[in-house]
Specification:
The complex is a heterodimer of chains A (385) and B (260).
Chain A (H helix, E strand, L loop, with lengths): L10 E4 L3 H11 L3 E8 L2 E6 L10 E6 L2 E6 L16 H4 L3 E10 L2 E5 L8 E6 L1 H15 L6 H9 L1 E5 L10 H4 L11 E8 L2 E8 L2 H8 L4 E2 L2 H15 L11 H6 L6 H8 L5 H5 L6 E7 L5 E8 L19 H20 L9 H4 L7 H14 L7
Helix pairs in contact in A: 9-11
Chain B lengths: L7 E6 L5 H7 L5 H7 L1 E4 L12 E7 L7 H10 L1 E7 H6 L11 H8 L23 E3 L6 H13 L10 H8 L4 H5 L15 H4 L16 H10 L5 H8 L7 H8 L4
Parallel strand pairs in B: 1-2, 1-3, 3-4, 4-5
Chain lengths: 385, 260
């Protein structure tokens, strides 16, 4: 057992029970430790008080419109993919008061909220969600206008990532180049291996904070076969992706198919309920709501999550711009996979599959793209008109 | 400083259970502020003291279900500057709107010992079917948060925060896991108007649509899924959409699509 420092990227091996020490160490450093746990009969991200809160021995089965927990034979800690929730709810909370004003004798007084820079430690972040955080970083932290609240939470957050080692029913991270292997954007990355009775974690530090954490717990240099086992795990998961999405030429594909009849077909199914957008770990749209109290002495402005599937989303004086479900679904998908590139230089989709699983009627973004592609094979756009 | 003249509030009841107007008394913490800002001038459920009209703000509860309701709602409109219709009865005809799908004359003798005393219209209809309504609060019953927001907005001359989106937004913002996707529980949340704060799904129940249709609801698509994937039968789908908001056009059309 050594407390010697490890280099960035060096793989070390730990006993699974060391996780408890990792959690305790993070807590003692003032982090609010958030991770996967079972609540509401499903998988949620919530504060973890001990290792016992992790859904040990549980996995999931996902398909369009369906998510089910399933009991695994293997008593592993990280045997599931991503659930409905994502880390976005912590870095970019659903509702936040941006300011309030109080009427006074002469005029009014504005009060800004205290920046509640909670120090979060996120446990069990999958590669797709790391990619999603990187996308939201571009949205909130780059360009002329940045979000100080997001920045305060983001910069302090400790990210303990896990390599994904199981089939993902609706995910397509391989297509999007975002997983299942984590490559960057983490403080500490773990791969959990269970081979017969041998159960261990292969860990690698991705930052100085991660190095310090490893140094505090018992670990050993990983043997070549242990490193190979870790590599095999994600390689196997990569071969078991539930979905694929051909990304070549996506932007121009969508730009030249603005009037494709496929949009009518998907609009007939789309509930415009907003679930795809709410569960998407990169969607960042919000609205501002102004309220007062009954007496008019207190006014508040709140920022809350909004979705491009509502009429109000495009409300200008007199009404909304996108009044049909067709135009709103097309906007959502075209933003994700085309205009996002113009806006932020990256795709707005990381292939986590949440929008497919959590759509109440199983609309599938990969199927929609495939249908548009195939329609071009039968009717080349140039031949239209 | 002289006390400013307060706007006058009236509360009117038509065919209803009184639950919505009770949400005004249910305001508790805000009730003193409401009474301070508005002169409660006509509210017979709370007080026999009546101040003569006209009224600045009229809350109207209930549907138009009897012949004498028709001239009375016209009179309410004439003496009210702002009419706020509250609840599923006032906005969609209420549970009593089930008569719209049947012959009310057949019901009456089954319910009343002396049917000759009963004067009922053939249909139960929302307030907006009879007069111009300035604002509607959907829900059976409405909740007090929504009512306080509408009254605050009226008093301050601002737009009320009253989004017409689905219950799903409220669920996701609360951190609720989708009961339909995670448990296969049929849920009307995707087609139902927000406002309740996702009350039922928070307790692991499917939404049963008591806030009525959201904007642009795609009820046909949801029904198709509930039928083909969650095994609901046609009579079950009919009943699902035929409850408190049976008369709301989107829900009425959907329930009629399952009549055979």
């Amino acid at each position: 057992m050594s407390a010697a420092s490890v280099n960035l990227g060096d793989e070390v091996v730990m006993e699974p029970e060391v996780l408890q020490q990792l959690l305790e160490s993070l807590r003692s450093q003032g982090y609010q430790v958030i991770g996967p746990t079972l609540r509401q009969g499903s998988l949620v991200y919530a504060p973890l008080s001990s290792l016992a809160d992790l859904p040990r021995g549980w996995g999931d089965a996902q398909e369009g419109g369906v998510f089910r927990l399933r009991k695994l034979k293997a008593p592993i800690f990280f045997g599931y993919g991503v659930g409905q929730q994502s880390w976005k709810q912590f870095l970019y909370p659903p509702r936040r008061r941006t300011w309030q004003a109080r009427r006074e004798e002469n005029g009014f007084q504005i009060q800004l909220p205290d920046e509640d820079a909670v120090k979060f430690a996120f446990i069990g972040v999958h590669a797709c969600d790391l990619a999603a955080i990187a996308v939201q970083d571009k949205v909130f932290l780059e360009g002329p206008f940045t979000d100080p609240h997001y920045r305060a939470r983001r910069e302090q957050a400790f990210i303990l990532a896990v390599n994904c080692g199981h089939p993902c029913g609706t995910g397509f991270c391989v297509s999007m180049g975002s997983g299942p292997q984590v490559t960057q954007g983490f403080d500490l990355a773990l791969t959990e291996i269970l081979q017969g009775t041998r159960h261990f974690l292969v860990a690698a530090a991705g930052s100085a904070r991660g190095q310090q954490l490893i140094a505090q717990v018992p670990h050993q240099k990983a043997l070549p076969e242990q490193r190979q086992a870790a590599a095999n795990l994600t390689a196997q998961a990569a071969r078991q992706m539930g979905r694929t999405l051909e990304t070549a030429d996506l932007k121009s594909l969508l730009y030249r198919n603005y009037e494709n009849p496929r949009w009518d077909q998907v609009a007939a199914r789309c509930l415009n309920c907003g679930n795809c957008t709410l569960v998407c770990p990169t969607c960042f749209c919000h609205t501002l709501e102004d309220t007062t109290d009954l007496t008019g002495t207190q006014a508040e402005r709140w920022r809350r999550w909004d979705v491009c599937h509502t009429v109000d989303f495009t409300y200008l004086h007199g009404g909304g711009i996108r009044n049909t479900i067709r135009s709103r679904y097309r906007q959502w998908l075209t933003h994700k996979l085309a205009t996002w590139i113009d806006q932020f230089g990256v795709l707005g989709c990381v292939g986590c599959g949440r929008c497919i699983t959590w759509c109440p009627v199983a609309i599938d973004i990969t199927e929609e793209i495939q249908a548009i592609r195939e329609s071009e094979l039968t009717t080349p756009p140039a031949a239209k008109e | 400083m002289p006390r400013k003249k307060r706007p006058k509030l009236a509360v009117w009841k038509f065919a209803s259970c009184d639950g919505c107007q009770l949400s005004l008394l249910d305001c508790e913490d805000e009730l003193l502020a409401i009474a301070g800002e508005l002169e409660i001038s006509y509210f017979v459920e709370a007080s026999r003291a009546v101040v003569k009209g006209p009224y600045d703000l009229s809350l109207v509860e209930g549907s138009i279900a009897a012949p004498h309701d028709v001239p009375r709602i016209q009179q309410v409109r004439r003496i009210s500057k702002f009419v706020l219709a509250i609840g599923a009865c006032a906005t969609a005809g209420g549970i009593q709107g089930l008569r719209n799908f049947a012959d009310v004359q057949e019901y009456i003798p089954l319910v009343y010992a002396r049917p000759q005393y009963i004067e009922a219209l053939e249909t139960s209809t929302p307030i907006s079917g009879h007069i111009q309504v300035d604002l509607e609060l959907q829900g059976c019953p409405i909740n007090k948060r929504q009512l306080v927001e509408a009254v605050s907005a009226f008093l301050q001359g601002r737009k009320p925060v009253m989004p017409a989106h689905s219950v799903c937004l409220e669920c996701k913002m609360r951190g609720n896991i989708c009961v339909q996707v995670a448990h296969g529980t049929p849920c009307l949340g995707p087609v139902t108007h927000a406002g309740c704060g996702a009350l039922c799904p928070t307790y692991q129940r499917g939404c049963y649509g008591c806030y009525g249709p959201k904007e642009t609801p795609n009820t046909a698509s949801l029904s198709a899924w509930l039928g083909s994937r969650l095994g609901m039968t046609e009579p079950e789908l009919l009943r699902l959409f035929r409850t408190f908001n049976a008369g709301a056009p989107a829900f009425r059309q959907e329930s009629e699509a399952h009549e055979h």
